[in-house]
Design brief:
The structure holds 2 protein chains of 2 kinds. By secondary structure, chain A is mainly α. Chain A contains 6 helices and 3 strands, in the order βββαααααα. Chain A has a single domain (35-142), classed as Growth Hormone, Chain: A (Up-down Bundle), CATH 1.20.1250.40. Chain A has helices spanning 37-54, 63-75, 81-92, 99-108, 113-119, 129-143, and strands spanning 19-20, 24-25, 34-35. In chain B, the strands form 4 sheets. In chain B, strands 1, 2, 3, 4 and 5 form a 5-stranded antiparallel beta sheet that branches. Classes of the chains: A mainly alpha, B mainly beta. Chains A and B meet through β1, β3, α1, α2 and α4 of A and β1, α1, β2, β3 and β6 of B. β3 of chain A pairs antiparallel with β1 of chain B, so a sheet runs across the interface.
Chain lengths: 146, 205
């Protein structure tokens, strides 16, 4: 049987007021899993290598993808797969932070909790300064193992 | 910010494509249409996997079949208020342009701290505070996105490096060409405890 088509339309989403300020209003991305730059680089490398090996589908060859890959190469802080996974494990343990905030921490690699609170305003109030500093120190430790 | 987002796309196939490799052709068409595109709100970088491809529905009156593919893709969506790193691509007296992944962000001179001024005499042109903070082509910079505008197939954004808070570090990573490593940045951090705004403006090492 064919699926029943809905008679009413879903409520129209209002766009335009998304922001990542002291309150995270991410619109359609509110509950979507986010990635740090290093994780994204790993994902893209894995997908493209798989495609090259299989030979069935082409690797995209346009400006957007090339620019993104160059950007990731320059700014991803963790070059080894093991350090990327270790950072992911550390961040996954933080149950008081949202995915967006965790990925920002893994991407920006702040040194002090003050810096983190300024760069990621929505973290303010969610964690104590000491806890945040501890987390940042653990991430910084992994960064030295490049 | 990069996300793994679930998206839908409807593809219509002409009957000449019906055959044993129809599914592969659909996926190939999906990649071609979607990878590297900008919806005006976000950029789709790469398709990761396909959740479901519906059965083809023949459009009445034509022979074409319509398929809806649900897939997961790596998507890049810039948010207002988000802090991002970028590379300066051009400098002029109104401000500078920096590339943040696929997006070009313009930082106007009004949103640059007052002590970093445009230096027209230097070649190539740059912003500097006549000390060790220099913004020229190729410099790495940390920007706070102030706003984004969507166009069909394109996005534009403006950013600021002026947000100033007392007791915050101010650094700027000098030319990427010098191969500044994160360890160097940390060392430079220790040497220049200027407590102004929080951008990365690191000395030329």
């Amino acid at each position: 049987m064919t699926t029943h088509t809905p008679l009413t339309r879903a409520k129209e989403q209002i766009h335009g007021d998304e922001e990542a300020g002291s309150e995270l209003k991410l619109g359609e991305f509110q509950n979507v899993s986010s990635l740090t730059l290093s994780e994204t680089k790993e994902v893209l490398t894995a997908v493209f290598n798989h495609r090259r090996e299989q030979g069935k589908f082409k690797v995209p060859d346009n400006e957007v993808v090339t620019k993104t890959q160059q950007y990731l190469e320059v700014f991803s802080r963790f070059k080894q797969r093991e350090s990327v996974q270790a950072v992911e494990r550390i961040l996954a343990l933080q149950t008081d932070l949202v995915a967006f905030e965790k990925s920002q921490l893994g991407t920006l690699c702040c040194d002090s909790s003050d810096e983190a609170k300024v760069l990621i305003p929505s973290i303010e109030g969610k964690k104590s300064d000491d806890d945040l500093q501890e987390l940042l120190d653990e991430i910084t430790k992994l960064r030295q193992f490049v | 910010m990069f996300f793994i987002h679930e998206l839908n796309r409807t593809i219509t196939l002409h009957p000449s494509y019906f055959g044993p490799h129809m599914r592969d052709y659909l996926i190939h068409k999906l990649h071609e249409d979607v990878e590297g595109s900008c919806t005006g709100r976000y950029f789709i970088i790469c398709v990761i996997e396909y959740e479901n491809i519906t059965l083809g529905r023949i459009i009445p009156g034509k022979g074409d079949a319509e398929f809806t593919i649900t897939y997961k893709a790596v998507v890049w969506r810039p948010f207002k208020g988000e802090t991002v790193d970028g590379v300066v691509s051009s400098v002029n007296k109104m401000g500078f342009f920096a590339e943040v992944g696929p997006l070009t962000v313009f930082v106007s001179s009004h949103l640059i701290p007052r002590d970093i001024k445009f230096d027209p005499t230097s070649n190539p042109p740059q912003f500097s505070d006549n000390g060790d903070q220099i913004i020229n082509k190729g410099a790495h910079i940390r920007i706070k996105l102030m706003g984004t505008r969507s166009d069909v197939g394109k996005m534009h954004a403006i950013g600021s490096i002026k947000e100033g808070f007392v007791n915050k570090w101010r650094f700027c990573v000098a030319r990427g060409a010098l191969g500044v490593t994160p360890a160097d940045m940390v060392e430079g951090l220790k040497k220049t405890p200027q407590l102004n705004s929080y951008y990365l403006v690191l000395n030329r090492l």
